[in-house]
Amino acid sequence: MSSYAKTVLGSHVMSATTNLPSRMDPQQQLEDLRATAPAQIEAATTLSELDEAEATTVGRRSPIADARRQLGSIEQSERPALGKAIKVVVDELGALIERKRALLDLDARNALLVAEAVDVTLPGRVPRRGNSHLIQQVMDEVVDIFVSLGYTVAAGPEAETAFYNFTAMNMPDTHPARLEHDTFYLDYGEEDDGILLRTHTSPMQARYMEEHEPPVYVVVPGRAFRRDYDSTHMPVFHQIEGLAVDTDITFQDLKGTLDHFTKEFFGPETETKFLPSFFPFTEPSAEMHAYANGRWLELLGCGMVNPVVFGHVGYDPDKVTGFAFGMGAERLAMVRHGIDDIRSLYDPDVRVLGQFK
């Protein structure tokens, strides 16, 4: 009996001459594996299936591993032949496995390329382009119109003193606008005069004239604050203040300037009219109305600069004259676009503001 039939089970040696069942001939195992393994390897369709086929054909759970364990239990003279047979089978199957792995690797890469394919001939994906808020658009356009007439642009503080906000604008202590229920006062140290959020952009008239000799032609866009809230008023709103100071300026200059602005902003056919009004810092004062959306609508307040204002800033009212005007950016936007409720301008829904590009 060949020694290949001997095997070790625990510490007991079973001989082929006994009546107990014998272990399969390792050479036969290798031949069987050599015949069946290629098909098993070829049947793998994924890398994980190939790893499983490798484990059962040449790995720790394979007949190869079993044959190697038997090398120690066979005759020494027969070991080289079995060892050589094991190597031949391992080399053949290993080559098949590596070739199959390369093919599956290539298939996986090709599938990934297809899944992540980019058509380079398509136009690029450009991010959605934003635009300025409607109020900012209006302010920029108004400023551009006056800059084209030779005006300078200026800006002032939003936290203002009561002197510049009221007194310099000919609003004495008894003026209703100075009451706390109309104005946002700030707790700002020991300032005797009081610090508040400006109620209009008019304080820049005084500030600008203090720092500049006439002639003065300036527009002041900015935010203002009042305790108003309804369909046409907001606590925070935007104004564009205008001031022109020179020698021999008349009310006719005021009317011509503002009529030109209106036609530039609303269209050349827009009609305007001026109605008498009252503002402490102008005398005489007027409201300018424009015919828009099928009716006359108030657009802004204006008038000739009150000599009292000139006195507060050191100008000689006998030598200079001037006019001033103030308009709300929200008001202009609402008239131009037929918006009935000012709160629509502050709606966070971009579909609302997206209409005005």
Q: What this model shows, in words?
A:
Strand 5 and strand 6 (195-197) form a beta hairpin. 27% of the residues are buried. The chain contains 11 helices and 12 strands. It has a 7-stranded mixed sheet with strand order 3-7-8-12-11-10-9, with helices on both faces. It has a 3-stranded antiparallel sheet with strand order 4-6-5. A two-stranded antiparallel sheet has the order 1-2. The protein folds into 2 domains: 3-115, no CATH class; 134-353, BirA Bifunctional Protein, domain 2 (2-Layer Sandwich), CATH 3.30.930.10. Helix 1 (26-43) runs antiparallel to helix 2 (47-57). By secondary structure, the protein is of the alpha+beta class. Helix content is 38%, strand content 21%. Residues 1-22 have low confidence and may be disordered.
Features:
357 residues; alpha+beta; BirA Bifunctional Protein, domain 2; 2 domains; 7-stranded mixed sheet; 3-stranded antiparallel sheet; 12 strands; disordered N terminus
